[in-house]
Amino acid sequence: MTLVAGVDSSTQSCKVVVRDADSGALVRTGRAAHPEGTEVDPQKWWEALQAAVADAGGLGDVAAISIAAQQHGMVVLDIDGRVIRSALLWNDTRSAPAAAELIDEVGAAEYARRTGLVPVASFTATKLRWLRDAEPANAARVAAVALPHDWLTWRLRGFGPADESPLGPDLTELTTDRSDASGTGYWSPSTGEYDLDLFERALGHSAVLPRVLGPGELAGETVALAPSNWLPAGIVVGVGAGDNAGAALGLGAGDGDVIVSIGTSGTVFAVTTSPAADAMGTVAGFADASGLFLPLVATLNAARVLDAVRGLLGVDHDELGRLALEAEPGANGLVLQPYFEGERTPNLPHATATLFGLTLASTTRPNLARAAIEGLLCGLADGLEAVRGQGVVVSRVLLIGGAAQNPAVRSIAAQLFESPVVIPAPGEYVADGAAVQAAWTLTGARPDWRISIAAAPETDFRPVIRSQYAAHRVEA
After folding, report:
1. Beta strands 144-146 and 75-77, pairing class
2. How far is residue 29's CA from residue 201's CA, in Å, rounded to a whole number?
3. What are phi and psi of 422, to 5 degrees?
4. For residue 146, which of 132, 160, 163 has the smallest C-alpha distance?
């Protein structure tokens, strides 16, 4: 049996799956935590990767590996291959004014035409502009800019600072893939090329950018690393991907499938044959990891909305769901606009959460529990409508993420989304997508691994939920 490994280096943790390259059967897994916060020293990701690999039983019998990771994170390197400052993550909103400046200079429609995106604080370009203005000395030292999965892949292949890596700081050996490059704000899914004018406008000068590899291409091979020797030499290294594109690969998403993911962030995305270019900036026109395109809507507020209300009510997630199902659809007029951490879609980085419709009748624990779930899902339902507006035909909604296992979330999703909802069996689909890439790189053909469906709740559309939410919607 030939084994391959897939890695998901996400905001919260590093997950490793080891699968049979032929059947996709899961052999073993591992996990390690990442630090909290919106800026993180990339060395912590490297350490977590080693810990997760150890937790998964090592890589001694693995033939290929690929890394998917959180998108947009700004990893800036100096000429010696050293990380200059902690990486700003996708959910760091301090670059919101920089995004507005870039739009003023270039124009929203022109950005959408050239990159498929309109800048918001999440995207790498805005973080580079922030660095230029807020930390000019650090910006002046930047010799290369990478994304989290680019940097980890580079390190796996033996590159890095001379005193830490056997092959040294060869910045020209940085690689990425089209899905992650498409989230920077200076790469075009339509042309498949970097827009160096936009890059230099953001940072203020030129720098090395990772070479963009195609689906199934080889990034290189691992080099044994001393002193622990946790990484054997000669393992084939795949191209890697951004997390959402990795999930689409892991789910085997096809035409008509829209994925709604409830994690630290909420995302709505589909695999399409044509690139998106939304001048309003609601839909990001990303590329996918298979050679197609990935129109996507992201929200900052997702699973942690439920965490916040669960904590307020003093219950666990199971009890939150049970309370929510005691209330009627619409929560007796109680509406939660869940912008606890600002918001990306709509682009309101400084917004706060608001609870509407408080009356003596509506102020109950079940209504508050239900309003939390409805508010979370209404934001994602708005995202689904925006994706539809880009010409995507929706046959079914694949609901994934830890919250999708809650019966109340499933039931309310079937009342909100006008298309059939299915819930795949719990899995690490981002890491699975990376494992698909590893097998693809090893064999030269994309594997066809089947997924299991855990539930398919009956569609029970209740328009009152979305109409109430829309009545209080705040636009960017």
Report:
1. antiparallel
2. 42
3. -125, 145
4. 160
Tokens matching residue 74 = 């700004």
For residue 448, is it left (φ>0), alpha (ψ between -120 and 50) or beta?
beta
Angle, in degrees to the nearest 10, between helices 303-313 and 317-326? 80
Q: Which of 117, 212, 214, 133 minimizes the C-alpha distance to 174?
A: 212
Asked if 421 contacts 460 with a C-beta cutoff of 8 angstroms, the reply is no
**pLDDT tens column, 202-212:** 999 999 999 99
Marked catalytic residue, from 8, 243, 278, 382: 243
What is the full DSSP assignment across 101-131? Answer: HHHHHH-HHHHHHHHS----TTSHHHHHHHH
Task: For 437-460, write each residue's pLDDT tens digit.
Answer: 999 999 999 999 999 999 999 999
Handedness of CA 394, 284, 308, 316 (dihedral sign): positive
Burial (CB < 10 A; 0-12, 13-18, 19+), residue 184, is: buried
71 is in an annotated binding site: yes
The C-alpha atoms of residue 434 and residue 236 are separated, in whole angstroms, by 13
Which stretches of 107-214 are DSSP H helices? 108-115, 124-134, 136-141, 148-156, 178-181, 196-203
Q: Can you tell me the distance from the alpha carbon of 8 to that of 16, in angstroms, rounded to the nearest whole number?
A: 7
Q: What is the pLDDT of residues 250-301, one digit of tens each?
A: 999 988 899 999 988 899 999 999 899 899 889 999 999 999 999 999 888 9
Residue 458 DSSP code: P
User: 177 has which bridge partners?
Assistant: 213
Query: Contact, 335 vs 369, CB < 8 A?
Result: no
- The Cα 345–Cα 369 span in angstroms is 23
Ramachandran bin of 175, using left for φ above 0, alpha for ψ from -120 to 50, beta for the remaining angles: beta
Query: Is there a contact between 336 and 474 (Cβ–Cβ < 8 Å)?
Result: no
What is the pTM for the complete model shown? 0.90
205 belongs to an annotated ligand binding site: no
DSSP one-letter code for 259:
E
Q: Could you tell me what percentage of the chain is helix, strand and coil, using 3-state DSSP and rounding each to the nearest 5?
A: 35, 25, 40
* 78 belongs to the catalytic site: no
CA distance 304 to 324: 16
Give Rg (Cα) of the chain.
Answer: 22
Question: How many of the other CB atoms lie within 10 Å of CB of 474?
Answer: 11
